Amino acid sequence: MKLAFLRGTGSRTDTMANQDVDELFEVKNSFYIGNYQHCINEAQKLQPSTPEIRQERDIFLYRALIGQRKYGVVLSEIKPSSPVPLQALRLLARYLQSPDGRPTVVNELEAQLSGNVDLSNTALLVVAATIYCHEENYEGALRVLNQSDALECRALMVQTYLKMERPDAARKELKTLQEKDDDATLTQLAQAWTHIATGGEKLQDAYYIFQELMDKNASTPVLLNGQAVCFLGQAKYEEAEGALQEALDKDPNNPDTLINLMVLAHHTSKPPEVASRYLAQLRDDHKTHKFVEDIKIKEEEFNRLVKQYAA
Amino acid sequence: MLTKFETKSARVKGLSFHPKRPWVLVSLHSGIIQLWDYRMCTLVDKFDEHEGPVRAVCFHQQQPLFVSGGDDYKIKVWNYKLRRCLFTLLGHLDYIRTTEFHQEYPWILSASDDQTIRIWNWQSRSCVSILTGHNHYVMCARFHPSQDLIVSASLDLTVRVWDISGLRKKNVSPGMGGLVGGDDHHTRNPELFSTGDATVRHVLEGHDRGVNWAAFHPTLPLIISGSDDRQVKLWRMNESKAWEVDSCRGHYNNVSCVMFHPRQELILSNSEDKSIRVWDMAKRICLHTFRREHDRFWVLAAHPTLNLFAAGHDSGMIIFKLERERPAYAQHGNLLYYVKERFLRRLDLTKNKDVAVMQLRAGSRSPVYSMSFNPAEHAILLNTRTHNLDNSTYDLYQIPKDSDPQNPDTPDSKRSAGLTAVWVARNRFAVMDKSHQLVIKNMQNEVTKKVTTQPCDEIFYAGTGMLLLRDSDGVSLFDVQQKRVLGTARIAKCRYVVWSGNMTTVALLSKHTILICNRKLERLCSITETNRVKSGSWDDSGVFVYTTSNHIKYALTNGDHGIIRTLELPVYVTRVSGSSVYCLDRQATPRVLTIDPTEFRFKLALVQRKYDEVLQMVRGAKLVGQSIIAYLQKKGYPEVALHFVKDERTRFLLALECGNIDVALDAAKALDDKGCWEKLAEHALLHGNHPVVEYCYQQTKNYDKLSFLYLITGNLAKLRRMMKINEIRKDYEGWYTNALYLGDVPERIRVLKACGKTSLALLTATTHGFTQEAESLSAHVEGGVMYEPLPNAQLLQPPVPVYPSDTAWPLLTVAKGFFDSAVGSGKNAATASAMALSVDDAGDVAGDGWGDEDEEEGDLDVAMEGGEGEGGGWEVEDDLDLPPDLEGVSTAGAADGEDGYFVPPPRGHPPTQGWTQRSHLALDHVLAGAFESATRLLHDQVGVVNFEPYRSLFLSSFAHCRTSYPGAPGLPSLFSYPARNWRTATHKDHLPALGLKLSSLMDRLKEASQLTTAAKFTEAVDKLRGILLAIPLLVVDTKQEVSEAQNLLRVCKEYVVGISMELYRKGLGKATPEEQCRSLELAAYFTHCELQPGHQILTLRTAVNLAFKMKNYKMAMSFGRRLLNLGPRPEIAQNIRKVVQVCEKNPVDEISLQYDEHNPFTVCASSYVPIYRGKPEVQCPLCGASYLPEHRGITCTVCTVAQVGKDCVGLRISPLQFR
């Protein structure tokens, strides 16, 4: 009974249950750990053995491109004639490309979801959840994700629970994930997220998970930031600096890296200019980032308060 | 049983180990004695003088001797160094069964079928004693290792113990060291049937058939015997009697030989039933049986010191061990874990601290075979292999964190069956079971999954998620998660795997081969050894240092390898660091061996092209030698080899080889050999370096070539000089050629004339129209024959050089290699480094200067800091163990989940919300983003009304309260909130981490202080205000820190008030007397601000000067005295003293001021007038600056934020203040 589950690492395991090796392993794996370029390279190298695998490969290829913020490429390559799951990715690319068009995209999505949803179309579910999460409609995201049994959907649920500040629910969901496949990269990641949210000694466990993934694959800004957050949580500032520098070298514009560097600068008593430089960079390149928006709100609140006391 | 070596020969009847060298003597039924080196597996020598079988052979303990005895009744003593028989002892009348040297005395013991045992003195070469009593063949006789006893076994069914103390007393005079032979009486005429020398002490009867062998226990009063009745009997004896203890039954044919294990409680016996058996001495049960198919065993021997045994059988002999001697160990960082005598020990290699960390669980007789250590979980897997592999087990231990080294714990282990268990991840390990199936288990020792692999028989560690699978002809790298083989390396029977520290390279060790591969198991190189490869470790620089049975060697990944040093005994390398090799010996005792790493470092540096290191090592000149030069030449580093060579000829050749003409030129100058010059010329010409070519030609006086060289380089002046030289040398040919080259017709005529070719000269002259010459010549031409010049003759002139090149032809600019420059300018390099050194020195000096200054500042600051000490840290005192949160809610959620209809749980609250509820400290509210409550707190606590200056503090603090980490791709990142009490924090008492620390404010105060010293008052005030503002946003843990913060606040206030006043004073005009007067007043007030002495000195100096200028001598005097009390620098002090002296003469004040130095006062921070003690004043609730009462309600001018005179709670920066 249990063995039937053991093999799966992704959503489409049923189609490949009889095969020994997951052809897409490398592609998926590098995607999940944020090694997008490697994912794209591997996907292009791959000779898919079945049309299903080809389609799934394309999904990851385009998702990786979206991960690299190459929305234009995705929009031009996915035609209306392309398979249904790819259409969902087109939707996501449109959503992420322009903040102005977002309400329309959300409306389209709602329309799609209100009909009969093909539950095997994991891509659509993932896209829907992603957009809902960006809209901070976590309940919507959970409703969508809960319908599917796919590992990725479950992992997204863990993250959504964490976004909702419900680590208890996340831990519970994580358990089902671990029962499905404890060794899968997504499970490991989800476990690391949950550990971070739990804090305390679990931070060290999270660190080990990230380190193990790096050992096994490669270091990416995603993993390095994860580690840096563990370090920052444990007040290990020197180690955090190492991880963040490496992340910065790999992607100088990663918002997580910038935020964490800012926190680090603060805790290591660097001159205030250092931190404000990172903040300025964030404001320039990631206007719509929650972090930047929060700060904007706080600025306004502060202005109001200054006036209030001056009066 | 582990067979180490086997020989094929005729039946083996006698065996003897050499005590020191890896040699064994084998005497054969064919009459030959063989000497084998069992480590190198070679036959060292053969001794063939006996006729018929040789049954007995024995090495001497010290001398290069051995003794043999055979069926030819002869005892022969041999010298194996001289490789011949020294002499033969005759006397026995039948086959000789055994011979043995005595440990101390110059005696040989022999047992013979003539029913006697004889003792011989090999120095006097005579028989000392004949022991009679047996009435059948004596099959064996042995000396006791320490007592004056002999044991003998005979086919008369008895074993006899003989006392030979009488013989010893008679033969060995005391004080002669026991090595002198017996007296003449005995050596000449051994007393037949004498009873005085050797007496029978015990006769051991019990065997039913003839006894083949008997032997003493090395230390206990025990005897073991083996007989044709197929039994092994154990006997015990004391002074008066001997008795049978027990019999070991099991052999089913004649027992041919039996012995005690030299160091363990074991008995070894062998038999004609083709088996060797190992018995437990205490329980007398058979532990192991080793069988051969066809060969009956005849003899056994034990190595005196090593755990080695030899057994002779019908078709040869075997050398074997009973058990592996390799200690189980695992190394991580500086820690070495190893098993010794049922303890797991930990050795810190850097501190050399060796402690037992735990006792292993009892239950298995077999030693630990291997181990795998998990640093993350501090857990260890110990594999135990039994003789029957199917019963092998492994134990999973959690190593206790702290344990008493004297009496370590025996923690519980999780034991399961399995051949090998190794870690594959932090919380997973792989187990290979007896059917060679692979399963992955978790920390609870539960199977998490089964993995099907290709057939393999062993697994090794290969980093996270990987395993190395071994099959008979290779090793594969296997990804456990993907279940895929990523790479394969072919190596027969790989035994051990050693990964480098960073897991980039791996060495696979088999019996005689080392294969070095990269992470993907791609082969880098392989090395074949003649000796067994034992162990290895990667040095920090990426050199593999390994041991064979007799050497420590190194290997580079390019395949270079060599011997570092020899070893007496095998050791197991655990770590290599610098010149230390850490290893375990066979007793599992950690040892550190020192090696000279120069050779492999040198080669490594060469391979990695770190030429600076190479050069350094070369200059260190530790490794000059032909072999190194040959190595360098062979490997294509002639330029490096150049450095080693002192011999000029080799140097010359090497220089040519690497195209270093300059060096070659130097060498050639030193050699000054024609051949060299020619060779150099040739090479230099190829390089286009024609000045060198020219030099060479000059040296060899090769005028032709020199001329031509000048021609082609267009050096006409030199060419002409050549012509002159040729003229002087009367080399007409050369002279003429040069003239031709130069197109110099008159010269040609001169040459022809000079060499007597007058007609040719004439012809030349006429052809070229030199009529005058022609005429004078024609007179000389005999016969008056005039040649008409050819009518169509043309004058061919050599081309005129367009650009005479007197420097070498331009070479391609090749980036100069390190060595080229180093060779070219060895001295320059030296000076350069010297220069670097001197710069360093300069730096040091400068540094000292700076340091001094720093110290001065430091003194100042230390004083300023008061009793500041770094606070305890993060932990918040309340250690509440709260139950796990929200269990109830989560179960509710679960219930929802079980239903068909999914209801998302309600959102939770971020930790930030808790901060505001739990804390009344402003900073926690700011961090939580609760600006509203934060401002209210600041307003209530310290009366802040103007929040604008707080903008950046608030916003940046808020921005620093959370870290961000990406989750699944595409989703918005998650936030994490670092806690200051992270070790203990739960959701319920989580509090934010703090960036702003009291100590960093102290640092800022130092900066402000420096600015003040430098009189940068505006900047200083800004800085100080920054500190003032930040103080209410501190969070500290102790009362002491609270008072320090308050102190800091006060210091800042004093400075801001003082400096503001000074700024105001400077802004005043100096035109009117009123203004001057006010200026002096302000300067006087300034001296009453509580500043650091250094700063106070400055204020006082200003005040002295002002007062003196304005002729207020009394004031100046008083300022001056105050100043002197503060201990200023000597030159200032001197100056001030003068002023004071002048003032003392006339202690009056010209102007009267609103200043009473004897009445304590504070200065109003707004109007800068003194408020004498006891007069009404109002204060700023934040900084405590004083104001005249009329200023109540204004915003404080010092901190710029708080409302003067507002009634407030006061500064609140620690949770302690709320208790």
TrEMBL record, chain A:
Q: Which GO terms describe its molecular function?
A: structural molecule activity
Alphabetical keyword list: Cytoplasm, Cytoplasmic vesicle, ER-Golgi transport, Golgi apparatus, Membrane, Protein transport, TPR repeat, Transport
Q: Which residues form a coiled coil?
A: none
Which coarse location class applies to the principal site listed for this UniProt protein? Answer: membrane
- GO:BP terms for this protein? endoplasmic reticulum to Golgi vesicle-mediated transport; intra-Golgi vesicle-mediated transport; protein transport; retrograde vesicle-mediated transport, Golgi to endoplasmic reticulum
State a GO cellular component annotated for this protein: Golgi membrane
Keyword Ligase: yes or no? no
**What protein family is recorded?**
Belongs to the COPE family.
The protein's role, per its UniProt record: The coatomer is a cytosolic protein complex that binds to dilysine motifs and reversibly associates with Golgi non-clathrin-coated vesicles, which further mediate biosynthetic protein transport from the ER, via the Golgi up to the trans Golgi network. The coatomer complex is required for budding from Golgi membranes, and is essential for the retrograde Golgi-to-ER transport of dilysine-tagged proteins.
Q: How does it assemble?
A: Oligomeric complex that consists of at least the alpha, beta, beta', gamma, delta, epsilon and zeta subunits.
According to UniProt, the name of this protein is Coatomer subunit epsilon
Native source species: Scylla paramamosain (Mud crab)
UniProtKB/TrEMBL annotation, chain B:
Keywords, sorted A to Z: Cytoplasm, Cytoplasmic vesicle, ER-Golgi transport, Golgi apparatus, Membrane, Protein transport, Repeat, Transport, WD repeat
Q: Where is the signal peptide?
A: none
Q: Which residues form the COPA/B TPR domain?
A: 626-769
Gene Ontology CC terms: COPI vesicle coat; Golgi membrane
Keyword field contains Metal-binding: no
User: Superkingdom of this entry's organism?
Assistant: Eukaryota
**Described function:** The coatomer is a cytosolic protein complex that binds to dilysine motifs and reversibly associates with Golgi non-clathrin-coated vesicles, which further mediate biosynthetic protein transport from the ER, via the Golgi up to the trans Golgi network. Coatomer complex is required for budding from Golgi membranes, and is essential for the retrograde Golgi-to-ER transport of dilysine-tagged proteins. Xenin stimulates exocrine pancreatic secretion. It inhibits pentagastrin-stimulated secretion of acid, to induce exocrine pancreatic secretion and to affect small and large intestinal motility. In the gut, xenin interacts with the neurotensin receptor.
Q: Report what the protein is called.
A: Coatomer subunit alpha
